[in-house]
């Protein structure tokens, strides 16, 4: 069964603003949902802390810390945080929604990635992590589940739930938090974390991408923790001979057991990764062991919950503090040592040695060209989206880019009209320093032709809404209508809740409300109140007692459902979930028949009509009706004193 079908959060309006639509993922601390921000009319991802943790002040403080940590980072490779709040007993975090997959999904589907794919992903991860380290933030929970691969090619780091200040490198206390497969030796043995602990996790991820499995495995978490503390991570090429020696060096450097033997932060490792990438692409001849493949477009991978047991964040108590300390420190390796070690392993003759010497000699010039010279790259930041053209221009010019005076236009379903929606090249693209950029201004949602919904079934209307595309607001409204067959569309409303059936166009991805017929209201005439309530409950209506009237139905039974007409005389519409008011019978309206025998015929007729009866005078009497002296009533039917229903027919005789 789909979890979304039983999750009570689906369809809930959070804090009067965020409409929960579906569940995306569930972790150790929180569940992530896809939602619609009704105020800004955009899709967002909302992380809601598990209810059993809401009363734990430490977990709540850590949850709020994620919002603060992420909010301090404004980088294309870090997931944006928009809002944080509390609704009833639920703490929540509103984040940027990125449709796509995680690095874990990619590994589950393809297992081993190519060298080029690994480098591309690692460059994005390290760029975002470098921004965090520069801001004084240590992630402390890096793993493939927290690396998001968007459908449009963007790569971002998420989940700073365990983040803390980089300077706070003291023991975490009685428990260790994080995913055991990626914990550094110092976290396992001493509970200490700094920027180099994140580097260790990056190295483990790089190993997993190149080999298709983690370096340390065990049936129990303690076994894996012991290996992290006492064993060196093997070279990826020992398992996958296609891995270049340069990547072996990067993995071994990043996963050194002693923190001092690793890169000090993500920026140092990223700079070395750039040089490694450049040398693999331009300097080395293609061989069986070093050939670099271009990144392929990979299909989305479905989540495989059964295969993620090693990726769940777990808590380890004080017993981990007794894991054996690390082995004697290996010799510290810097970038030069890495290059030398790679040269020894790849030595194939004097010509390769000469080539490496030439590369080392040109490293300084290459570093300048790609670092700050004409070959340097600038990423167009996401911060220009939804900014005014003036503010966006200032941001881009500060980055060294040349902004065109001419403004382009584009439709955008989220960004408000006259604000920057995108750019050419697109936001998130890396362009050469000084490259020209054209700002694209939002013209609002693109007008889309409104389908002919009249006569469609609910499923046909759903398909048409998705194909348009519009955004269907769930749940579908079920309305009773005696003129339209059950299951057919009655109306489709726009975001302002007015009908769009007669409109030619409507905005792309904008909210629509679908109203579908439930058929006519059920007939409850002359049923008991209990029977009528059960009948109405069966079609999704509640009921309550209303006014009482005289009626042919037995006293105490239901006459009908009160139509509750409005000021224009129109009966109200009933929708599933509404409450129907029942009109109750007081029984027939009986009155006593007056005795008019001996009365003047004209006076008797007038008296009976005023009492509410339909009077018939015998034909013979009518011939002398105006005779003098006045004719008198000699008989009547029914007889005087009899109880009959008001409005009945009576006859008088002369």
Automatic annotation (TrEMBL):
Signal peptide: none annotated. It catalyses: L-seryl-[protein] + ATP = O-phospho-L-seryl-[protein] + ADP + H(+); L-threonyl-[protein] + ATP = O-phospho-L-threonyl-[protein] + ADP + H(+). Pfam families: PASTA, Pkinase. The chain crosses the membrane at residues 350-371. Keywords: ATP-binding, Kinase, Membrane, Nucleotide-binding, Serine/threonine-protein kinase, Transferase, Transmembrane, Transmembrane helix. Its EC number is 2.7.11.1. Residues 375-443, 515-586, 587-654 form the PASTA domain. It comes from the Bacteria. GO terms for molecular function: kinase activity. Residues 18-280 form the Protein kinase domain. InterPro entries: Kinase-like_dom_sf, PASTA_dom, Prot_kinase_dom, Ser/Thr_kinase_AS. Coiled coil: none annotated. It is an enzyme of class 2 (transferase). PANTHER family: MITOGEN-ACTIVATED PROTEIN KINASE KINASE KINASE 20-RELATED, SERINE_THREONINE-PROTEIN KINASE YBDM-RELATED. This is non-specific serine/threonine protein kinase. The lineage of its organism: Bacteria, Bacillati, Actinomycetota, Actinomycetes, Micrococcales.
